Each structure stands twice: as C-alpha cells, then as structure tokens.
Automatic annotation (TrEMBL):
The keyword Hydrolase applies. GO terms for cellular component: cytosol; DNA helicase complex. It comes from the Bacteria. It comes from Planomonospora parontospora. GO terms for molecular function: 3'-5' DNA helicase activity; ATP binding; DNA binding; hydrolase activity. Residues 8-288 form the UvrD-like helicase ATP-binding domain. Residues 289-532 form the UvrD-like helicase C-terminal domain. This is DNA 3'-5' helicase. It catalyses: ATP + H2O = ADP + phosphate + H(+); Couples ATP hydrolysis with the unwinding of duplex DNA by translocating in the 3'-5' direction.
Amino acid sequence: MEPADVLAGLDPEQREVAQAVRGPVCVLAGAGTGKTRAITHRIAYAVHSGAVEATGVLAVTFTTRAAGELRQRLRALGVPGVQARTFHAAALRQLTYFWPRVIGGDPPAVIESKLPLLRTVCRSVGREAAQAEPRDLAAEIEWAKAGQIYPEDYAEAVKKIGRTPPVPAEEMVRVYEAYEALRRERHLLDFETILELTAALITEHGEVAAQVRQQYRHFVVDEYQDVNPLQKLLLDTWLGDRDDLCVVGDPNQTIYSFTGATSHYLTGFPVEHPGATVIKLVRDYRSTPQVVALANRVLEVARSPHRLSLVAQRPDGPEPAFTEYADEAAEAAGVARAVRALADRGVPLRETAVLFRVNAQSQAYEQAFAEAGIPYLVRGADRFFERPEVRKAVVLLRGAARSAGADEDLAPAVHHILSGIGLTPEPPAGGKAREEWESLRALAELAEDLAARGAGLPGFVAELERRAAEQHAPEVEGVTLASLHAAKGLEWDAVFLVGVTEGMLPIVHAKTPEQIEEERRLLYVGVTRARVHLAVSWALVRSPGGRPRRPSRFLDGLTGRPARVRASAPAPRERRTVAATVSCRVCGKTLAAAAEQKLGRCAACPVDYDEALLERLKVWRAAAAKEAKVPSYVVFTDVTLQAIAERAPASEQDLMSITGIGRVKLERYGEAVLAICRAAGDQTEDA
C-alpha cells in the first residue's frame, strides 16, 4: 500500500492527524468523529512512508476488544507488525519475559478478581469490615492503587480529598494492609501490581530499560482521558526521555474518575509537552443533526474550557423524544412498546439499547421485555464466550473440527451440533431459555457468514478462538440493556435513556461541582450513543404512592420549555408526550394494550377473517425471514400478521393504516403482502 492510499477518504482534520507522524501529538476527538480511523491511518501512514518501523510501535488502549479492533484495522492497512494491546496485557508480557532473568524463578500468578482474597481478609480483620460488600472494598483498593496511595497513606489521602470509604478509614487501612500481605504471601499479582512491578523493573534495571526502549520507540495511547496515575507512571517509564507520543481522547467523555482516571493528562498535554501538535476532530459521522444538536446543548452549560462542539455530517433524522411517565413500571412498559414499534418499522433489536444510570434499574426493563416477548441481553453480565451454553458449544465444535473431513459443509455441520444442545427452528418464548437460544443462534449465523466465504469447520473454530481472545462476540438479536458507563465506546441506531431524574442522574451521592459535571458528561455519553432515534424518559414516582421525583436538572432547556429555577418550591410539571387514542373498530371502546391497538379491536371482540390468508402470510414471512437471515418477528410480528389477515388491505394506504407498519416496512414488504391479500380475495370471489 502506498502512503497516498492511506490518506484517501480522510477528512482534512483526520488527514492532519495521519500526517503528524512524529510526536508529541494530542488529538482531541469528539464522539463519533472517527478517532480510531484517524490514529490507525496515522500509524499506517508513518510505517508506509518509512518514518517508523511497524515493530517499533506500541498502541495502547483500555479494553481487549478495543485492542483487537486496532489490530484488525492495522492488518487491513498493511501493517500487521504493530503491537496493539491494553496497558495490562503489554505490561504483563514484559513482566513475564524479564522476571526469570532479573528476579529469578517463575513470575507470580495473576488473579482475575480480588474477591476471594478479600473474603478471607474480612474474616480476619474484624466484624465491621466483614459487613461491607467485598466488591466495594475491592473497588476502593483499586482506586487507591491506581492513584499510588499505599496503605500507610490511605487515611490521610481520603481525608484530604473528602472521599467517603465503604468502611471507616481505619478499618479500610486494615483491610488494605491485610489484602496486600495475603497477596504477597500467596505469590499473586493483581492488575494494578502488574503495572507497578513492570514500571519498577524498567526503572531499577538499566538493561531492562534499554531493551524495552530499543524495542518500542513510538507510542499511541487511545482514550487518554481515562488514564490514571499508575498507568501514566508506566507510560512515562516506557518513554524515558523521549517524546514520540500520540495521545487521543475526549475530555467530554471523562466518566471514570471514581476509578482514579483523570482528564488532566489529556487537557494538560500541551503544557507537559511544549510545542506539541494539537488537532481537534469535531465532524460527527455517527449521529443525525438532531442528536448532535441535543448532545451539544447538554454541555453548553458545562464549565470546561475544553468542550468540543460537534458538527453533524449525517442527513436529518427524527427529533429526540422526551416522555414523562406516572411510575417506573409504566416507563418500562412504554419503552417496550416503543421498541416494538421501531422493530416493526425495520430497526433491528440488536441495534436498539436501553441505557440507565445504575444496574439495579435493569430489572424493570427485563420484566417488561419478557412480558412483551422482546429478546434482550444485559451488558455487563457474563461475557459472551464465558456463557455456559457458548463454552459447551465451542468444546463440541472443537472436537468436531479435529475429526471433520475436508469436504464437510460448515453451516449444516454447525447447525447439527448446536441443535443437539438447544438450537431449535423457532425461539423459546422468553427468559433464560431465550437468552441461551439467542447465543446459539448467533454462533449459527456466524457460521453461515463464514461458510459463504468458503470457510470450513476448522477455520470456523479458529475464528471463534480469535474472537474469544479479543472479546469480539458475534451479534445477538436482542435489545441491549446497559448502564451508561458500560455503554461508552458503543453505538446503536436507537437509544432509550431512561430514569433521567434528580437523584438518579445526577446520582444522589454526587455533591461537589466536579461530581455533578461528571454526571452531566454521563448524560452526554448516553446521548452520543444514538445514531438516529433517541428517546429520553423519566417517571414521577418509583411506584404508585411513592415519593415524588423531578426530572433531572440536566434536562432544563432541552425539552421545549425554559430552564426552571432551582428552589424549594415544586418544579413545574414537564410536558408529557401523549399517544393518540385508538378505539376498537367493533365496539368503540378505547384500547390500551399495544396488541389490541395493533389489531384495532378488543381481544375479546368477535371478528371474521380468512384463516387461509393468515396461514399464507405466515409461510411468506418464514421465507422472507430466512432470506434476510433474521428471526420471523423482525419481518412482522404475529399480531401484525393477524391484523393484516383481518383487514385484508387492498392498497398501500390500507396497509399503512395498520399500527406498526411504517414507510420502511411498506417499501420492503408491502408489494408482496398486498399480492398475497389480492390473491386471497380472488380465490374468495371464485368460490
């Protein structure tokens, strides 16, 4: 690949990033502005132009999946020799390599979680600490270690900054000391210690420093606003006295300060590196102008001098919707109806997300979606490749691959294996069985995609193992339920931001101006996850008769009304979004249930319809779904087919009058459905 080819298709600012091949370089990249594209093309341009050697570049990010994406893009750009890793993976590789030579013996084992050690510690340090949630204790230790705060300094440090520990500070010191003593006694490493020891090896052993710095001469750090002091220490150790460093980040997406992350390293980069090249990416290619305008307004009142104002590049879309509900159950049910309506209009469920402030809010939506028959997955639960059904499937597939003949047909072989552990032609109604079915179906669809490219069973298993290592899960057909923190870095066609009330967003324990501004940035992150459809909602009470709630202060001035004055008096009522009423076409009664509204009648009202027509519609739907490789309900739900059979539409206007059939569905399926209905009518007349 020629250097000029690497620059093709980049916008002016991305091209400027790509051509800034020597550091120090600071890229301030807003949401959806193509930062990954910019930095991967920068690395590729530098290599292809001869400015750097591919093996001398270390690109660092924060998640295994992000590192895998960097490697994949760099391979596509013709530079597979670049190392792209997380901080921890890069450090562990160096630590494991140098430990036998410098320290001697085998390196300590790495623990995935602090919880087993902390449970042992809590039993030994006293009743009060043992009453605390071990996860809270683990998070506090991680915060302290990320900030280079040792047990002997902990009590003074939290007092100085006004931090509230999960147990009294003196108890926390005892837990922290006991945890570190037990970890060393058992010859174990946690993630923070990996970074700390790697930095120490490089600092204290000249031969280690020389070899590391000879190997890596050019550094790129993604998501630099999320760097904590310990990671910064390691990065500085890698660099030594050099400054060939490119950092990329968005101060508007700094939402992890509770873990020790700080945007000060990003915003202060030009001060730390005088003469640094600073480039801003503000062209938003992800979201519609309507979504971008709302995102900009969310931050208009922010005090940050580093705020990036995004400029939308996509065509117009619908305006964001703001809806008030009576209580949380009504909000969850309303969101479920809206999700189903979007699905009927052609928005895939896997391209829809419901985002909330805390994980406890997930339960109401899990229940509402289960009752509505809408599949979903909870992000932050088991990783895809760690789910029992997926692990079992991979074991069976691996065994089959070892004995498979060269001429084995991939897709049928995979379907045969997966059908033996729960993959059926039609999905279960809901619950755990539906989640497991969706996992197996995702594996089957991936096999079908690879089979179309000529892959066999061994190649399919190799692809699964690569994806598992990079946490690159195949797409699962279902709505994503996730916290705002877990949603960072992701995007969907449709996003529902729910529970946007005072006490939840901002969260009740956010007290200082800095904490409130971070909560505002959380809302900004949520808004910028949406490509086209965005809905914001809140409930006036948690449950009927409960304590009243107010819409979040962050919505002031965003919902079509002026910002309210914050005072002790009750806030003015938010304007509601009210759905138009639908009456039964048989008895005239107002319909409340979504299914009844779609049918246009009460479920109990008698109605005549052509059963043969309904059956022909179902056969057609199955064929259309198979051709599109989607579940049947994505084409049309059973209720929609029932409504079509009952009304036997004769024109596009008739078809559009059925609730849930919009312009997208009409263009995609209208002609076929009307032809089936006309054929049924002709047969009736002949009879």
